[in-house]
Amino acid sequence: MKAVTVVPGMPNSIRLRDVDKPSPKPGMVLLRPLQVGICGTDKEIIEGKYGKAPEGSQFLILGHEALARVEALGDKVDSVAEGEVVVPTVRRPVNCDLPVDYCPMGHYVEHGIWGLHGHAAEFSVTDARYLVKVPKEVVDVAVLAEPLSVVEKGIDVAMRVGQSRFDWRPSSALIMGAGPIGLLATMVLRLMGLKTVTAATRPADSLKARLAQEVGSKYLDVLTDKVEGEFDLVVEATGAVGVAIDSVKYLAAGGVMVLLGVYPQGGESHDLGSLLTDAVLNNKAIVGSVNASVKHFEMGLQHMVKSKSEHGNWLGKLITKVSTLDNYGDAYTWTHDDIKTVLKIGE
User: Fold this and answer.
1) pLDDT digits (tens, 9 = 90+) for 273-306
2) How far is it, in rounded angstroms, from Cα 62 to Cα 230?
3) What ranges do the domains of the chain cover?
4) Per-residue DSSP letter, 121
5) 179 is in an annotated binding site
6) Beta bridge mates, 60
7) Which end of the chain has fewer beta carbons closer than 10 Å to its terminal beta carbon, N or C?
8) Which fold has domain 148-288?
9) CATH 3.20.20.70 correct for 2-141+318-344
10) Neighbours of 235 (CB within 10 A)
11) Distance (Å, rounded) from C-alpha 258 to C-alpha 265?
């Protein structure tokens, strides 16, 4: 079978290679991937900055954001049926008794990222316990379920933290960034009834700005507009250190900030002490979130169904480029105006 592979640690080693078709062991299923979403993590792996091949393999099959059809069942699998459309979660525990999305580094493997082959192939295998069935209404956009699950977890954690202290009922939110994560966070918070502002560096007539506005969010181009006011909830989705630090000042007293980026080393703030003191004196909370559980995938799929009902094909507009295995290289190139690129593999 054909698969998109890299040699972790070797920059630009991406290639389409013929590999053996996997077979499902007991408790596992054979999947026929339909679509694979591509994100910044893939970019870092291709650049040789991250990633690990499975034990005994010289290469890693990419693809952690997947939509697939169940092709065959291993022994002792009765939770799914052949032909069902599913989304596999990403992380699997290794000697870890915590919920899998909270296992520390070194105690998990991840499909298409770390120690476990991904789904950018004609077939893949995974543990049946980590499959989430896709409602028929959103099969066409369910490839977005993985990034949406990270958003769902971050917001869920923020709500739990906020409400653990007092009767916290947030009504306003600021979303920094209008990439896939920022726009999906905007969608979720609007569906939850919060008044939102989405801020990014694209002009007001850009697709990203229009998409934020289509779900009822106010859009700000931070290159020309100034963020004003305070917000009960701030979602940082740019991955920029300076933006993350400066965003603390936009939190209202008792508010919660969610970090959904992965931040490079370095960065500085000219007044970090004042920001931290303000966070202490005003009981502000900052939480980080990465990866997600089956629960948060399910929450995301239900929000997709609701979005379809309220916003029509809005989610489909986030997919701005579709490639196939035959022109896979085009899928793994990026421009600043792309939102989500999808590698289409099966039907």
Assistant:
1) 888 888 888 899 999 988 999 999 999 999 999 9
2) 41
3) 2-141+318-344, 148-288
4) B
5) yes
6) 6
7) C
8) Rossmann fold (3.40.50)
9) no
10) 31
11) 19
